[in-house]
Specification:
This protein is α/β, with parallel strands linked by helices. It contains 17 helices and 14 strands. The protein has two domains: about 220 residues, 3-Layer(aba) Sandwich (Rossmann fold); about 200 residues, Rossmann fold (3-Layer(aba) Sandwich), CATH 3.40.50.450. It is about 50% helix and about 15% strand. The strands form four sheets. The protein has a five-stranded parallel beta sheet with strand order 2-3-1-8-9, sandwiched between helices. A five-stranded parallel beta sheet has the order 11-10-12-13-14, sandwiched between helices. Strand 6 and strand 7 form a beta hairpin. The longest helix is centred in the middle third of the chain and has 22 residues. The chain is globular, with a radius of gyration of 23 Å.
Length: about 450
């Protein structure tokens, strides 16, 4: 299997703030331990027995040194387009001829970029010629003696069949703009090079171009947030688990000081991850980062638990610095960040098999409702957990199934009753999904 992993500089896919191992590095390390342990215990069921990572950018720098070129990380993007293309060709030629790339029991993560936003213009991060070689060879190796489906055809035109998911797919690692800026400004190459608005645009371009390449070759493309557990991408590589987008009314619960119900939703996500791939919208914290600029100390303490405040302090580095950054944003930038959040969450629904909605409030959530409608309108199953006996027909219309106390049930009398119902119903939903997918 081959996984082509894109992501803008600073998204944390290889390097963390301060130089620690990034998301993909941690994934490879965790995978080795998980696979070895499961094989030793006789419970490993995936054909993938090894995951490795090849950093294309690092390979380009290494081959430049071999050729006697004085090229450094800080200067490589200043090379002429022709020189960059030639250097990339040297690295990718070596890569496609690497026997390990084609081992049936291995997954190779090719770490690269779809594009770079550098000094006000785009620089390509991929070479479509070598991508075509990889896809053609993958199709050849996965070819079956007898076709299992009717070949799509038009007069004088035959379309290449989709590559099976076990062959190759794209993934883009995304993160909040504030955290990306932190990492960029921690390096000599990117310090003060890209303002907030350009980071928003660059991350959108990275996702858009990667998705176009995946659609062209008819292979899957996934967004995976940096703050999702490494297990998320691990499961996408090694298993064919059903994929869930977990929706919940984050903004409303924050405003009402019901941080405990956000904790309950995230505990539900952890429970589901035992059997499913789960995409959690709170894994990208753009809205939280922007909110820090508007919240006073009293509001901040009311909207976040002590554990949540510690989590924010960890990713923000300094609450004061995060608040200063949020306060410095103009209205257009805040608008663009909000729009980026909406588009990203809808994409997460598109790559999921179902939308599970944890809806512990009688107040309307524009976000959760819009997500449900989008999921329903694009053919996804929608499961809603709602703690009140009476439910709007508009909410119920978008649902495949709703878990409520029922028409004869009693409405909860307070936050504790709501939490009790949501916790119990969440486990019922999990068991129902396990039965539906034959995992019970």
């Amino acid at each position: 299997m081959i996984v082509i992993a894109t992501g803008v500089s600073g998204c944390g896919k290889v390097r963390e703030l301060g130089g620690g191992p990034g998301y993909l590095v941690r994934l490879v390390d965790e995978a080795e331990q998980r696979i070895e342990s499961a094989i030793a215990e006789g419970r490993w069921t995936s054909p993938i027995r090894r995951i490795r990572m090849v950093d294309v950018g690092r390979l380009m720098l290494d081959r430049a040194r071999d050729l006697g070129l004085e090229v450094r990380t800080e200067t490589i993007l200043d090379m002429s387009p022709e020189a960059l293309q030639q250097l990339r060709a040297v690295a990718l030629t070596e890569l496609v001829n690497d026997p390990e790339l084609w081992q049936e029991d291995s997954a190779t993560i090719l770490v690269t970029h779809a594009c770079f936003w550098w000094k006000g213009h785009l620089i390509p991060g991929l070479d479509t010629h070598y991508l075509k070689l990889i896809f053609d060879e993958t199709r050849r190796r996965l070819a079956r003696p007898e076709p299992t489906a009717v070949q799509e055809s038009l007069p004088e035109l035959k379309l290449a069949p989709p590559i099976r998911p076990e062959g190759i797919f794209y993934v883009t690692i995304v993160d909040s703009v504030y955290k990306i800026l932190q990492r960029l400004n921690d390096t000599e190459q990117w310090r003060d090079q890209v303002p907030t608005n350009e980071v928003i645009m660059w991350q959108e371009q990275e996702v858009f171009l990667t998705k176009m390449l995946a659609d062209y070759e008819r292979v899957p493309h996934y967004l995976v947030a940096h703050d999702e557990p490494a297990q998320t991408l691990f499961d996408l590589i090694c298993f064919k688990r059903p994929r869930i987008y977990l929706g919940y009314p984050i903004t409303h619960l924050r405003r009402e000081g019901l941080w405990n119900l956000i904790d309950e939703a995230r505990a539900f996500a952890r429970s589901l991850r035992e059997h499913f791939v789960v995409f959690d919208p709170l894994s990208v914290k753009d809205e939280e980062a922007v909110a820090l600029g508007r919240l006073g100390t009293k509001e901040f303490d009311a909207q976040f638990s002590a554990e949540q405040r510690a989590e924010i302090a960890a990713w923000a580095g300094s609450l004061e610095r995060a608040r200063e950054w949020a306060a410095s944003l103009d209205e257009r930038t805040r608008l663009n960040l909000g729009r980026a959040t909406v588009v990203r969450d809808l994409r997460l629904i598109d790559q999921s098999d179902m939308n599970v909605v944890f809806y512990p409030t009688g107040q309307m959530s524009f976000g959760a409702l819009s997500e449900m409608i989008h999921a329903h309108a694009t053919g996804k199953k929608v499961y809603i957990i709602y703690p009140f006996a009476s439910i709007s027909p508009f909410l119920e219309y978008a649902a495949t199934r709703v878990w409520t106390p029922g028409p004869d049930g009693a409405n909860p009398q307070g936050p504790e009753d709501i939490q009790t119902f949501m916790s119990r119903a969440a486990q019922e939903v999990k068991q129902e999904l396990l039965r539906e997918y034959g995992m019970a």
